[in-house]
Amino acid sequence: MELRTMRYFLAVAREENMTRAAELLHVTQPTLSKAMKSLEKELGQKLFTRHSFSIRLTEEGLLLRKRAEDLVGLADRISGEFSTLGDVAGGDVYFGLAESYQVRYLAREIKAFRRAYPSLRYHITSGDTEQVVEKLDRGVLDFALLADEPDSDKYEFVALPEKDAWGVVMPEGSPLAQKSGGCVTVDDLAGLPLFCSEQAWRNDIPRWCGDRMDELVLEGSFRLAYNGSVFAREGLGYLLALEHLIDVSEGSGLAFKLLEPRLETGIYLVWRRLTVLSPIAKRFLAHIESAFGEEGGSPGLNPAR
Hints:
By secondary structure, this protein is of the alpha/beta class.
């Protein structure tokens, strides 16, 4: 199985059309079609369902797409790292980011770091903690920003200066939004349809409600808080989410209230133990450790930076 074939496969999967993919790859359509048939034969699986004017991936094809994206991404990383070994002013750094308002701290430090290394190229992948950690473990990423305490046996990490607070996103005209008082309790949410990420439902919400978890009803789970907020705006349920992720300003149609008792989640910049970082990634790590410190302190977090 050649890397070139994986690039061919990803182009076909993206375009869902053999002719368009061939044009983008600058190869003939028969050449591309032959390569895809050979790939199916090599793997012993049907990867495509062919229709009159389009191509769809089978379940096996979807699995290969995920693996191929990581494989090609890692190959590009290796090529980029070696091509920039002599470039003392730059190189590529790969980040995976879970949703958090604290991303702003990372953005500020990247901006500050680029002053010293103007040729820095950074690549961002977003997702929930599970998705980001998977790519970190596979070596596709240098660093991950996680809304969950890392496993210290597998990872090294620096805590960001603040913690994110949990609350409820709801239609601004809902009874819960009109309730007097600024916070939401378990009594308020018991029996109501709730939206939440699977990770938070397993790890964070039980810390808040304790033995009353059975009184909460999970209507649906969302990896991205924004998508959940769309459903909440339609009155389908109440979204449990971190503060500041969703626009609840006047005119948004939404309101937000913090949970009571207060529930917080720490945010961590994580990298794998014993991993070999590229020269530019090592320099960035030194910069971050200087800015945040081992305890997630606040040196260098002046907004003016």
